[in-house]
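ugh ok so i messed up the first submission bc i forgot one of the chains. this is the corrected input, ALL of the components this time, i swear. 1000 residues overall. if the numbers dont match what u have on ur side tell me asap before i send this to the collaborators (the ones from the other lab, u know who)
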Amino acid sequence: MSARHLEITLNVNGEPVAARVEARKTLVDFLREDLALTGSHVGCEHGVCGACTVLLNGEVVRGCLTFAVQCDGADVETIEGLSDSGAIADLQRAFQERNALQCGYCTPGILISARELLASGVAPSRETIREHLSGHYCRCTGYQAIVDAIEAVAHARFAPPPRAGEVASEASRKGQVLADSEQASPLHHASHGPPPPLRGGG
Amino acid sequence: MKLSPDQPSALTALDRPNSYIGRSVPRPNLARLTQGRGQYVSDIALPRMAHVAFVRSPHAHARIKHVATEQAKKAPGVIAAVTGAELASVITPWVGVLTHLKGIKSAPQRAIAITRACWQGEAVCAVVAKTRAEAEDACALVDVDYEPLPAVTDAETALDPATPVIHPELGDNLTFERALTAGDPDTAFAEADAVTEATFVFGRHTGVTNEPRAIVADWNPGDQRLTVYHGTQAPHMTQDIFAKHLALELHQVRVVTKDVGGSFGIKVHIYADEMATVALSKLLKRPVKFVADRLESFVTDIHARDHRVKARIGVNKDGRITAFEIDDLTGIGPYSVYPRTSGIEANQVVNLVGGPYACPNYRARARVVFQNKNVMCQYRAVGHPIATAVSEGLVDLVAARIGMDPVELRRRNLIPDDAYPATGASGIKFEKLSHHASLAKILAMMDYENLRAEQKELRGRGIHRGIGLASFIEVTNPSAAFYGVGGARISSQDGATLRLDATGAVFVHSGVTEQGQGAEAVLAQCVATSFGVPIERVRVVTGDTDHTPYGGGTWASRAAGIGGEAAWQAGKALRANVLAAAGAMLQADPATLDISGGIVVDAGSGRERLPLEEVARVVYFRPDTLPPGFQAEFVVTRYYVPRGWPFAFTNGVQGSYLEVDVTTGEVKLLKHWCVEDCGTVINPQLVDEQIRGGIVQGIGGALYEHCVYDEAGQLINGNMMDYLVPMAVEMPDIEVGHVVTPTADSELGAKGAGEAGTAGAPACIMNAINDALRPLRTAPLLAMPFTPEHVLRALGRI
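and heres the new structure output, hopefully the right one now
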């Protein structure tokens, strides 16, 4: 093995993967080019647009700011896995009903961030939803339909939002890796949240 | 969840049983897009596919003395390193001019520059390798010997005798000029009670489609065919151009466009690097893929706007506008873009200024000049944001000057709703618009009087809120007058081919394309209604030149109004053919039959006679049982092109309520409204979302987006950290209302809605900011984008 390449093993959407990857290859390029998981998109390759958002060990990360070799031994989940497991079926349905996507290029990433937001178990306000989406660039919709769809799912899942004392999300406009402090591990999932995604070959 | 209310159409011609017209039917393609199962061009991988990366000029203007590719060719994975001179053996240059823009001129542009690079970012060499990363690695090994040349960057001085001429063979840096005088503006200004002058500046900005431009070209020497997977709005247009410049017959080229990750006019042009990619595939006899990365998107995707408009308006004391005058200057980069030209936006500004108003006196001049920056061309709402901001900005300034409420001044000048058909000062023709009804509706939606009261009350507490309005018109449903008459081989008609399958479902093949706006849903609604089947039994196919009727694609808000009408008519024709077969089977007069819910019924009573599945079964499998001589025709095609009017103008009005923080200069958007009249509303939800998305794109130009060049022609903020786009947290909720004035040019009566939001938003935001700052007696802010820095400078704080 040259120094340019490393062997890694990981779980992607519950399937074991062993691969030899270039050290410089990003996670999103690895997913798209090596595993043909093209649901994660490449929009800016510098961590701003959020189109490449995936889950790494349950945490929301930018696929373009994460190297594939950093994922050795990790669990990675993409929009394909979350779709097949039904984990975000209510969000997907709401996005369709509200036309919360046009070209759809940003949508997988936004759905993954919306899942994170709603994993807190509390229905967020519209302002909190907007703030949480600030790591995602959508050129088509103007965002309102996306906010509406997420709000509708939140209301369906939870009680109406508290008027004050909300916990602000840590989303930032600059789009660094988003901390997922609120999200329980899939094994300790909030009782009224979506079913946990399938893991480990399940 | 706020689903748009269904709006049944008032038109009887559309009053079919189980009509889908006016219903917010969800788009059929959303399920796969939400599952990450889209098929964008950037997702495509073909056997033996290679990847191309380009060496791009770091200079705004430089002579290319030598390109050394030897080291690059030896690099790992490299298949070829190709210079402009080498590529010229397979692809010819092009010139972006059209005859209806009288006098427009440009120079031949090449897929890869040969002797001279004319902007920072122009490709000077291509490297093809097994992976994109290897191609980029090898690009770093290409040694280009440049001799920097003086860069022409300031449009204001581009025509000065001392300024170098970018293309000496053209004689000067003037691309195009248009002058227009209507009525008697000199007398009108001389006799006006008040004349207000202002200079409006519109920053260069760009589309920033979330999926960058992407193309996979696959030349198959065995078939002698080129298949191009292309993220484009106009597949038949690009098919024509690839064929022409690669010396192929049209039928040798197939363009396939599946999902496109945003277009907005960015993807309706021909780009040099895309031409190079198809040429490289022909040269190398294998598939070649090019996907622009974000940094090269900023220096190669067309830019837009970048206009400086000196303007004035005359009014009488009673508020009657007497005249408009504009002098527009715009710099469009070193080449007029192919094939639509870069003269269209300035031409549109001339056409549209003052368009909502009954004012016959108008003088306009527009000059389009070359410069050594990235090329500019048509982007969503071409010319409209500029014309609307100039017109509406002048109206607000002059209203303040004579002490009249801006709403009242509009009421006294907007073309009366009963005055149609009407002709604007520039000669543009309006079939029927609804400016006054729209204004009345938006004022009610805004609760305008109470909003003014609130604004006044808050001003007393040092809170500076502004209310802005902007009436606008929008060009939609273009006829051949837009491009065809100038010699562009861009179809203005569009077609739909319908095919009944063996179970009674319908396939629709349409020449318009799906860019995310919902064209496929609209086509399905039209066919399901006019043919008479549940919408689940309609399957739409777009974006394939082998399998769709020759058509124009999606631009200028034409997909629903033109493609939808063709689909509507095709549905009627297929219904007639199916009823002919059903009549033969039932021994009934086809005129007494109809199709409803996928079942042949008696037209009067609705009594069910025969499922479509049974008609199809007999026609396809037991035609021997049909009467002798009867032949069923279950494939039909219908075309449509607007003939009554050159364009179907729409109209609308937007309102903005915002707050200016005079300490930080930040503008906080509180609420935005739009009332829009696109004629028959086929799908209310999709129309509203086009409006919302368009408004936010317009807000981007008004507040954030700016391609900032230095004097040397270097783009200094060409990345997404420094080029700001609207993000969720800054955007307001947007309330959309409608007035419905169908066009009589089609049975459907639908006009376009894709650009109305972008057309009016910048004007509306500008007027609201100036309304907020007016009590502080600042000079009006007229240069977009209105960044905090600009606001603070206007306030004298920095």
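quick check: Confidence is low (pLDDT under 50) at residues 1-11 of chain B. that seems consistent at least. The longest strand of chain B covers residues 194-206.
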